[in-house]
Design a protein that fits this description.
The protein is an alpha+beta fold. The mean pLDDT is about 95. The protein contains 12 helices and 19 strands. The radius of gyration is 21 Å and the shape is globular.
Length: about 400
């Protein structure tokens, strides 16, 4: 089998890249180790930056997002029993975010990919990327019980942190930057309408809490918990009681309770692999970088990577110049590091470290006070949250 671009992974990054290349007239093949049902059910991110939503629309994948997604024009910060709303459009010249689950993005992109006939192979496990440093890289994979080879002009690894793509970059060429946090998020899905119409980020002496949503009828909520926590050790009543404590305010706001349908714990880490390119192999998304979820940047960073690659390859096809492809890693990493910085800042701002001192607690409150009282500080948060420019 032969193609121009071999894409490993049918998450939102790999699927969007296939769509962008299809629209540019560039052939590609997508290999996904899981079955279609799994890809369309795996719960991940739910916040789309302005730029991500715009890219999906331009790619022809925005119709259902615009019909069913929830546009959010701000977030609420809670601290010291007080509430402060950050107004995105007023601070950013009209930008906003959209609540639309990754599962739904994948469903939309899969439907487009299968409708247009470009190869998308489920249950096709990539085993290795070979000859990445040459002009003829290959992906060795297993599909329908037999091994095969996909010969490519380029390979893009959208196969996550545990995938094979990054392993094809020689260790001597790589630098890794990482940080592991001593806490995680206990996340729950609940069949109850959200108790607020925008996301609520709460800093509390007992730890961070986040009120989010998947739809007008389904709430998504998170609690900061110690690293290594087993979600099964928390009863539903304990979760709701703790959420109430951390969201408490001095007004009459109340948290609505409902049946919890799912519980899981997400570890928190920051990770960057440099470079994001080796020869004809390009890394995108979690294969190259991971952010703590506090800043809602993971999916959006992956979209920025594949948009950058698609633009660069289209430029080479149209002009013969490899300039943008050669700059891929540096271009992506500028945006990646700004997102890492913002995600780290949000995490440090809102989470209570296990050994935090009274001095550090007061610093957190002082930072939040600054955001609530300074348009400049508030604007910096709003610009970062709604998204850094692609490229």
């Amino acid at each position: 089998m032969r193609t121009t671009v071999g894409i490993i992974g049918a998450g939102p990054a790999g699927l969007l890249l296939a769509r962008l290349l299809h629209n540019a007239g560039i052939d590609a093949v997508v290999l996904e180790s899981r079955d279609r049902s799994y890809v369309e059910r795996r719960q991940r991110a739910g916040i789309l930056e302005q730029g991500t939503a715009d890219v999906l629309r331009a790619a022809g994948a925005g119709e259902r997002m615009d019909r069913e997604g929830l546009r959010h024009d701000g977030i609420e910060l809670r601290f010291d029993r007080r509430r402060h709303r950050v107004d995105f459009p007023a601070l950013t010249g009209g930008r906003s975010v959209t609540v639309y689950a990754q599962t739904e993005v994948c469903k939309d992109l899969i439907a487009l990919q299968l409708r247009d006939g470009a190869p998308l192979l489920f249950e096709a496990e990539a085993l290795a990327v070979e000859d990445a440093g040459t002009d003829a890289p290959r992906i060795r994979f297993r599909h329908e019980g037999r091994e095969d080879v996909l010969e490519c002009a380029y390979v893009v690894g959208c196969d996550g942190f545990w995938g094979v793509a990054r392993k094809a970059i020689p260790a001597g060429l790589a630098q890794v930057f990482e940080r592991t946090y001593p806490f995680g998020w206990l996340g729950v899905l609940a069949d109850v309408p959200p108790s607020h119409d925008e996301l609520v980020y709460a800093r509390h002496d007992r730890g961070f809490a986040l009120l989010s949503m998947r739809s007008p009828a389904v709430s998504r909520l998170y609690l900061q918990v110690p690293d290594g926590t087993d979600a099964g050790t928390w009863s539903d009543e304990e979760i709701w009681d703790e959420l109430e404590r951390r969201f408490e305010t001095d007004d009459d706001w109340r948290l609505e309770r409902g049946p919890i349908t799912q519980k899981s714990v997400t570890p928190m880490r920051s990770y960057v692999h440099e470079p994001m390119r080796h020869g004809r192999l390009f890394l995108a998304g979690d294969a190259a970088h991971i952010v703590p979820p506090t800043g809602a940047k993971g999916l959006n960073l992956a979209v920025g990577d594949v948009v950058t690659f698609a633009r660069a390859l289209t430029h080479q096809q149209e002009t013969g110049s490899p300039e943008l492809l050669d700059a891929y890693s540096a271009t992506c990493l500028r945006r990646v590091w700004q997102a890492e910085r913002f995600s780290y800042d949000m995490t440090a701002l809102l989470h209570r470290a296990p050994a935090a001192t009274a001095f550090e607690d007061r610093l957190q409150l002082a930072r939040l006070e600054r955001i609530a009282s300074s348009r400049a500080a508030e604007t910096d948060l709003a610009e970062a949250y709604t998204g850094f420019p692609f490229g």
